[in-house]
Design brief:
Strand content: over 45%
Radius of gyration: 19 Å
Shape: flat
Number of helices: 0
Distance between the termini: 29 Å
Order of helices and strands: EEEEEEEEEEEEE
Largest sheet: 13 strands, antiparallel
């Protein structure tokens, strides 16, 4: 139950109403911390969140960024105009739409640059045991039953399944039932 996301204890302050709110959210769990300053607006049947300040931290290592145009339309869609977060040279930028209706129309685009996978394990326990520096461009479109997915990128200094020194480039494409994988991977050593 606790495997995917741990945020800890926290506080939230919400001011405003009836259609617009300002909020500050602070969570901490040991050395992990999540902070968010956001404006939330109710427009028609949708709720929109704009967060000019987002911070995820583990000890002294901090990721800072922003979220623009995160819209939730209950029963219809979840959309984000832009999510951007960075720590030093590491960057993650994403945008997309996920339909919650029957068709489930999806559109997603993300860029990961120099992402240290191990740095996210304190927030996402399912990543424990995995590591390395990842660059990737991920796109997805189509409906729930017929998605098209493309992932292109590289891994450096990777660790997984007891293997160390994983290096290489990869292209994965899934197009309506057909999977294409093109990789060039080397593995340095096997751990104990």
């Amino acid at each position: 139950r606790d495997r995917w996301l741990r945020v800890g204890d926290g506080t939230a302050t919400v001011r405003g109403g009836p259609t617009s709110y300002d909020t500050q959210v602070r969570f901490a769990n040991g050395q992990r911390r999540i902070e968010l300053d956001a404006a939330i607006a109710h427009r028609g049947s949708s709720w929109q969140l704009d967060a000019p300040r987002v911070e995820l931290a583990v000890g002294d290592a901090a990721w800072r960024g922003q979220v623009q145009g995160l819209r939730i339309t209950p029963g219809r869609a979840l959309e984000a105009e832009m999510v951007r977060i960075a720590s030093g040279s590491q960057r993650l930028e994403a945008r997309g739409r996920y339909g919650l209706d029957r068709a489930g129309l999806r559109e997603f685009d993300a860029q990961l640059q120099g992402l240290d996978v191990g740095a996210f394990a304190p927030f996402i326990p399912a990543l424990a045991g995995y590591g390395g520096i990842v660059d990737a461009h991920i796109t997805m479109n189509g409906d729930r039953d017929r998605p098209n997915v493309s992932i292109e990128g590289a891994v450096r200094e990777g660790t997984a399944f007891g293997l160390h020194g994983i290096e290489g480039a990869y292209v994965l494409r899934y197009d309506v039932g057909a999977l294409e994988i093109d990789t060039e991977i080397t593995v340095g050593t096997h751990g104990t």
